Recover the amino acids of this structure.
């Protein structure tokens, strides 16, 4: 699964730590989600989408093999 979290985060002028603090997760969680090494729970995905006032579908894109 691909995602555009880093693009949204950078456009908002946030560091990984600032986003993590805003949604109450660790910076490592944000890092591993952004690099697609970890697929977030629905709750984390929704928190990120709500933080950026966008839809989960705008942040996450399924690959053909997902």
């Amino acid at each position: 699964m691909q995602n555009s979290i880093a693009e949204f985060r950078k456009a908002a002028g946030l560091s990984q730590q600032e986003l993590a603090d805003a949604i109450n997760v660790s910076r490592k969680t944000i890092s591993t989600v952004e690099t697609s090494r970890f697929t977030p729970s629905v709750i984390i995905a929704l928190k990120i989408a709500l933080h950026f006032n966008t839809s989960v579908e705008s942040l996450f894109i399924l690959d053909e093999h997902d």
In short: The radius of gyration is 11 Å. The longest strand covers residues 2-3. The chain has a mean pLDDT of 95. The longest helix spans residues 42-51.
